[in-house]
Amino acid sequence: MHTAKLCGPEQTQIGNHAAVGRGFAAIGLSRGGAAKTYRYRDPNEDACAFATSPAGMLLAVADGHWGWEGSQAAVLRLIETHAASLLATGDSGHSESWEATARTLLVDLQQQILRAGGHRGAKPPRTTLSLAIAFPERSLMNWLCVGDSLLFVVEEGGSHEIGAPVGAIHYLGSPADDAERLYAHARVGSRSLRDCRALVLATDGLSEPGIGVVDPAASIESASTSAARAEDPELCALETVRNLLEEVLSSQRRQRAGDNIAIAVGWLGAR
Length: 271
Description:
Structural class: alpha+beta
CATH architecture: 4-Layer Sandwich
Distance between the termini: 19 Å
């Protein structure tokens, strides 16, 4: 299994970004294209990661609120503790099985985030999370979203969001949430990957009104279409990340309003 991660404390210069890819998976992270115009605790509170195995790939982005510890704890726990089992070929792939796994996963991530941010005092860090686990040979994806981080599926007809939040935004790491409240606030599902070109996960630095791009779906479609021209299919995920980061940072510079942005891409077309 191969893994990579990028966490907020590693990227704190406005306008800079990092991107890492291996095979059909890639991630990118930036503090943003301009200074934040809202209250915050740390310069960059986002994180992202991927893990790949012969069976498939795991992609995750997390948007920390009031500190980087929550997002970092979530992605590190996913990569270091759960990725191998989540990518195991023995996974049944049935939605009921994934829902049970997701419940257990939410509780474990919640506990890890609370431990990581406990020293912050009365207002501990929290985080959103978007997670996708893709098994291309089986044309299957399991997904989990908490909060307003984004998960897009790119198909030949365009890109569209799945797991979008409805109503108030909730977070992992809220101390009052027990297991039932965690699951009630999460969106969990499975779907086919038939005719899917790519999966794109991003924090809300991509989509926040007055900060991010005007049309996230169109920007993701454009970034992936341009990347698909690469001669080597194993560069397509990384090129999609880079294209999207460049557009987001440019948008934030134009609007003179920044936000952290984390992106993860899994490439499924032309494999």
